[in-house]
């Protein structure tokens, strides 16, 4: 029964990531279609376990899972072909997708494991979609662009090699492919940082300047940012229409401590995000590697390392990976106090981390040390800044993100209503939708088991519900939900669930 929800969670993760990447999460009908499909699959992975187990017992369903990846890649290629300036690689990947799809549909699915049916094709879909939609908005260094380009081609080559599980039967070959995937993931994300050393986005200004202000003893929530907007550089890159804002809404204080090591070392804070992605992929390898079946860890880690939005989110300094790494680590069967500390820190990194709390509570509700350390890690950093300057803290962390309209139109239900009907969701209805997302997250956590896999899927679904019903739903938000869902696909069958 555990295998089918894992396959469905993986499929949901890839569909969400592929749907959001071409427009960076701004509303577009094909993207909204994929986000809606991915959200539905995430719900089925959480609430439809018994039905999934019965369905995946039928060979045509498993054959369909094997075809899902190439079908998604073909959809991506067709979508890209309709753009004003499509990538020159689109025809090649369309032909590749048709070939793999034909083989998957023509060949009987002898593999009884639905996860192993779906994962190889989904890895190819991720690698191909990343290359089709590769773009950096503020690149100035060719060497970084070359690293991104070669990293993506390396990922495509390794995904093709891993398409057949026979290649992964030998440990040395499996280790070589896995190592190559980590190199590819590092090249794509690290190359984006090298290519775009100074992106024109306020998130980068926040994570670069405010930890340094904290080191100097200044209140980061009162610090006047040097905004990248309204500058000659912004106008050169076509961002001239946005005015400089020295006091934008920023994040819960965990992000300050996440980026403090980079501030001490004097390096680009985005390198901390690269480390978070590599560490999260390492957790996936560790989880999935506990299975006897070879290849699962390679496929799942490859999907995470080659997730289509990797270079874009790295360049833009979107740091949702900091949330994902620590809340997922907080689900592990560690000492309760340590798991609670990791989870609590993850919740404080960014506002959307709060929506992971129902799953964390369900996982550790019987362990008092876990809850004590989790609450301490959540409350302590927040109380420090509340005492320091409660007014600035409330203005930046709470009220700034409630301004109407600043997030629209994105790949979410409010964005759909605005783009298709011209109707802006009123504040009261927006609040009701946010409360509904919280309720869905609580329901998922209550109905799932206490195993790390079940609660990772419930946590991923909570983030999916938040993204679907709430205004801030851009590519980084969908990427976080996809990463958490994927971690729920990695935990092996038969592990104790703590019941």
How does this structure look, described?
The chain is mostly helical. It has one domain. The protein is built from 23 helices and no strands. The longest helix has 25 residues. The C terminus is likely disordered.
Give the tags.
69% helix; mainly alpha; 499 residues; disordered C terminus; globular; single chain
Q: What is the structure about, briefly put?
A:
The protein has helices spanning 3-20, 29-47, 49-55, 59-81, 90-106, 114-132, 142-161, 171-195, 202-215, 232-236, 254-265, 270-288, 296-305, 310-316, 320-329, 336-349, 357-364, 368-388, 390-399, 413-421, 427-447, 452-469, 475-490.
Tally of helical segments: 23
Report the count of strand segments. Answer: 0
List unreliable stretches of 5+ residues.
495-499
Number of domains: 1
- Beta fraction: under 5%
Shape: globular
Structural class: mainly alpha
State mean pLDDT (0 to 100 scale). Answer: 90
Helix-strand pattern, N to C?
A: HHHHHHHHHHHHHHHHHHHHHHH
What is the rounded Rg?
Answer: 22 Å
Helix fraction by DSSP (H/I, runs of at least 4): 55-70%
Largest sheet: none
